[in-house]
Amino acid sequence: MKRNSHRPVPAAALVLALLAALSVFSPASRADAIEDAARTLAAKVAALPRLPASATLAWENRSSLPEFLSSVLRSAFTSALAGGKISFIENASAPVLRVTLSDTPAHILLIAVLQPAEAPAQPEDAILLEIDRSAIPVVLVISSEARIERQLLWRQPEPLLDGIEWAEGASQESSLFLLTRDSLVRARPSKDGWRVTGSAPLPASLLLPWPRAGEAGFAAVSPTLPPQLNIRMNRKMCAVTLGEKLALNCDGDTDGAKSKRLIAAPCSQRKYLLLTGSGDRNEKDWIQAVKSAPDEGTWLTPRLEMPGPVLALTARPEGNSAIAIVRNLLTGDYEVHRITLACGN
Asked: Which pTM was predicted?
């Protein structure tokens, strides 16, 4: 495996008031309402009688909703369906689940249409969900208290599914865990970068059938202490036993849940939710952080451009950083970036 280090590239701090308005609802409750609507739509999709096991997701925002809120909706929608009755893949012959955001004077419309792949004469299943405009956050400001930074930790030509930083043992030594197509790899920092200090093969039962997009990665971290590192793949849960040698216990089932991608701004300790772009595997992507708080509005950091699509984004349990897996479109390599928030000034 090739290793490399990279100086953090700061995103320019920018202060710009985009929109201000009065509302009887707090911004935090409105942000929750957005995610609740996405989860409601996901539940309705999961209940469709002719739901296929896999489909291509086509997400389009034709509404006046800001793109970052469209990303919040998409993230909550796909997370609610992860490991459930349907998996999202990129395949021209697969059925298409088309989700369109549209407008009326009083509502934002979420329209989900399931288009069959091989039976064009078969009627399409359609779902319509309305979000009252009063539930939409209306105070939107580019944050001056924080900016996103990235640091390239690792790169390799072989595919990577996910990554997470983890504090091990009594010394709380930081390790980087990487999930490949057939193994769990542990690396630790050294004077020359990161070096592999252990690995464990994934059981064959996890790999068959090969997991679709979104069905493999590190699972939500339990709030109990000490935290438990888990892997989710093909609706199975593997508990990782740490030590000189890594071991996997893959007896449990999982619904595929993954923790929210929350990291804290060092100056204020406010938690920001990390968002990514549209999910197109053939285009460069971006990462942006958003926070909503009562009486403070909804705040965004400037976007941090990435060299390719973000394939996975997993927050560290302590909430001070996240790991992004990116496929560099120029080199074709799979890269591991540490994502942090820095003080804006």
From this structure: 0.67
